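In this section we walk through a basic example: taking a raw amino acid sequence and producing a predicted 3D structure, encoded as discrete structure tokens. The instruction is simple. Fold the sequence below.
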Amino acid sequence: QVQLVESGGGLVQPGGSLRLSCAGSGILFRFNALDWFRQAPGKQRELVASISISGRTNYEDSVKGRFTISRDNAKNMVYLQMNSLNLGDTAVYYCHAKLGLIDYWGQGTQVTVFS
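The resulting token sequence is shown next.
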């Protein structure tokens, strides 16, 4: 059974930083591309960052230069380092992996940026 478990969310002031972690079980991260999505209240879930099997990364335009996705295949972990957070980054953040035609999601971790 595949499980993704996020952690690391919380409350932070504008300009602050958080590091999100996602632990996988029942799935070998080294064989999969991995993503971080987020969903703000009243908005659709959006792709924030992706990392390929080879380590190539892609970012949504609003987070480029501020967020960094990384992976540790030995620990079966994927991370999202978030710097220079602003109010627009407030959302629930989800770890995502796709095996064949099946999408797997974690339960989400709340990130709240408040002034």
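Looking at the output, two observations stand out. The chain has a mean pLDDT of 96. The longest strand covers residues 91-99. In the next section we compare this with other chains.
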